[in-house]
TrEMBL record:
SUPFAM superfamilies xref list: L domain-like
Top-rank taxon, per record: Eukaryota
Organism: Anopheles farauti
Cleavable signal peptide: 1-26
Transmembrane segments: 438-467
Name of the protein this chain belongs to: LRRCT domain-containing protein
Keywords: Leucine-rich repeat, Membrane, Repeat, Signal, Transmembrane, Transmembrane helix
GO cellular component: extracellular matrix; extracellular space
SMART domains: LRR_TYP (SM00369)
């Protein structure tokens, strides 16, 4: 695993008297004798003879030890980018509580990674290191982040505080973290963030605030992520899933490339930065996706709208103003049944603008057919995934089969003749509507109609014949004196008398 040279370097670096090895294990001293066994002796600690987390004098143990024992894994993986050995300390699931720490914990020299996730900490331990880059405190019960608590971790690049009980992020909570690139604050109870809370993190590239109750906070006009909270334009990735947002203003985020805003009761998203390349609004409960829900985003490439629970329709012009859109993912939006023929706008239909759409994912939707007007928007389409949708493979869908360079994944559900057949294996001429499909019935119908007409004519002829006077009867003029003349017979008067 580790080269001998590296181990020697490590042992020298850490002044360790031991037989060396890829993995050195440490025994966590009991809480009782810890006060004597580990007095607060920063010199000794920093010299590496004893560490609170790693016991380097302990001989190499089996690295396949169970995770729930009393030791942290103190591991020296193969490569250090600087050439110096790097120490990774893994204390995941060690039931560490607050009492474990005594004052400031000086981490062993060369520590680059420290994982304290899934422990029982209720406050942030005071750590000190000039090499630490990755720190995880995820899934503890930390309720607050005190001011400047990370001040002695100036080299930190990634901080994971997810899955705790933090309610408020103070102005100075992240003070001193000038090189921080990623902070994960998801799954907390953050309802409020103080002014300039992120302004120290000048390099912040990725901010994760998902699953916090920030809807009411970001509803206030003065709660702008950029202008008020001090997030810089270096921020490229922002995650705000499940935050109960009805709207958010990100217009000042000129560096933002990816925004994950899914599972929020969004009404619209009018204020997004222009160069956004990837937007995820999965799970947003809207019924019809209207025009102007999104602003014009000239650089948007990927739009993800998975599992929209009550989405039925993409209305006309809903995807207008997204000229670079290459991937549209509607997977699992089970109620979606209608895509308006002009969803990309009239310009596309008139062939005035071209779309870049290359991948369209309609897997698991309720789409039965697609209007042939959409072919103008599908000119660059390479992949259409409609698996699991109740496709009706009739003449109205033939245009799709005729598109060159398009791979369509899906199975026909109707008509019965094509049931269960893969879309791509069906010949274009097999896409037929009922009338053309059963031409023999058509002929039959025509014959029937002719017969019917014949029958009716015969009937009419017969009726006419029946009521017409006999052609052999000769008519003679009847004069007044003729015996055939009309005679008026008076009623018999004798009866009246
Ligand atoms: C470190 O491990 C060695 C060997 O198992 C043990 O003798 C020593 O007491 C341990 N040190 C501490 C501080 O626990
Ligand atoms: C940082 O280290 C200095 C000196 O070791 C110490 O005085 C200070 O309290 C430490 N700060 C924190 C937040 O641990
Ligand atoms: C942030 O934390 C959550 C919860 O622990 C985790 O699921 C997610 O993968 C983390 N994100 C990143 C980018 O580390
Ligand atoms: C949201 O966070 C809470 C803890 O605050 C957690 O119990 C829950 O599972 C999270 N929800 C999701 C969908 O991750
Ligand atoms: C935000 O404000 C709008 C109207 O101003 C309101 O309808 C909505 O419920 C608010 N959202 C939250 C999460 O408070
Ligand atoms: C979400 O915001 C609405 C107001 O728009 C509020 O009534 C509701 O309680 C909030 N839900 C949560 C889980 O915070
Ligand atoms: C868009 O999605 C594709 C895969 O579907 C991925 O390769 C590409 O990097 C994504 N682009 C952005 C800007 O996220
Ligand atoms: C479709 O919408 C109805 C309500 O309009 C809802 O009851 C149903 O659960 C939705 N279907 C899915 C798969 O979410
Ligand atoms: C649209 O215009 C382009 C050239 O501008 C042409 O190559 C393409 O065939 C046209 N498409 C249709 C459907 O007319
Ligand atoms: C497709 O859309 C066009 C334009 O809206 C409409 O005229 C036509 O009737 C539609 N075709 C079908 C088969 O619905």
């Amino acid at each position: 695993m580790c080269s001998k040279v590296l181990l020697v370097t490590l042992t020298v670096l850490l002044f360790v008297v031991g037989d060396g090895g890829g993995t050195v294990r440490a025994q966590e001293d009991g809480e009782d004798d810890s006060m004597t066994a580990l007095p607060e002796l920063p010199d000794q600690v920093s010299a590496g003879l004893v560490s609170h987390l790693c016991n380097f004098s302990k001989p190499l143990q089996d690295p396949t030890d169970l995770d729930d024992d009393q030791y942290c894994d103190c591991d020296v993986p193969n490569s250090g980018s600087s050439g110096l050995p790097e120490l990774h300390i893994n204390c995941r699931r060690h039931r560490f509580a607050d009492g474990f720490w005594r004052g400031i914990e000086q981490l062993p020299q060369g520590t680059v990674r420290l994982d304290l996730s899934y422990n029982e900490l209720t406050s942030v331990p005071r750590l000190s290191s000039d090499t630490l880059q990755h720190l995880s405190l995820a899934h503890n019960q930390i309720a607050a982040v005190p001011d400047k608590v990370f001040a002695n971790l100036s080299t930190l690049q990634e901080l994971d505080l997810s899955g705790n009980r933090i309610q408020l992020l103070g102005t100075d909570a992240l003070a001193g973290l000038g090189r921080l690139k990623l902070i994960n604050l998801s799954d907390n109870r953050i309802a409020s963030i103080e002014v300039n809370a992120f302004s120290n993190a000048l390099d912040l590239h990725q901010l994760i605030l998902s699953n916090n109750s920030l809807g009411a906070f970001f509803n206030r006009t003065e709660s702008d992520l950029y202008l008020r909270l001090g997030v810089t334009n270096r921020l490229a990735i922002l995650e705000l899933k499940r935050c109960n947002l009805t709207d958010i203003n990100l217009a000042s985020g000129v560096g933002l490339e990816r925004a994950v805003l899914g599972h929020n009761p969004l009404q619209q998203l009018a204020q997004l930065p222009k160069q956004l390349a990837h937007l995820d609004i999965s799970g947003v409960p809207i019924r019809n996706f209207p025009a102007k829900f999104l602003p014009h985003l000239l650089h948007l490439e990927n739009l993800t709208m998975r599992d929209m629970p009550i989405l039925y329709t993409l209305e006309q012009y809903a995807l207008f103003g997204l000229p670079r859109l290459a991937m549209l993912d509607l997977q699992g939006s089970r109620n979606l049944s209608t895509i308006h023929p002009h969803v990309f706008g009239q310009n596309v239909v008139r062939n005035e603008t071209e779309t870049q759409l290359k991948r369209l994912i309609l897997k698991g939707t309720n789409i039965r057919t697609l209007n042939s007007t959409l072919r103008f928007a599908f000119e660059n389409l390479r992949l259409l995934d409609i698996r699991g949708a109740p496709l009706r493979c009739d003449c109205e869908l033939r245009w799709l089969r005729d598109l060159p360079n398009l791979m369509t994944l899906g199975v026909c559900v109707r008509p019965n003749a094509l049931r269960e057949q893969r879309f791509g294996t069906i010949e274009p001429h097999q896409f037929q509507c009922r009338a053309e499909q059963f031409w023999i019935y058509t002929v039959f119908n025509v014959v029937l109609a002719i017969l019917l007409i014949l029958l009716v004519s015969v009937g009419v002829f017969l009726i006419v014949r029946a009521i017409r006077p006999k052609p052999h009867v000769q008519l003679r003029m009847v004069g007044p004196n003729s015996p055939y003349a009309r005679v008026t017979i008076e009623p018999n008067r004798a009866e009246v008398l």
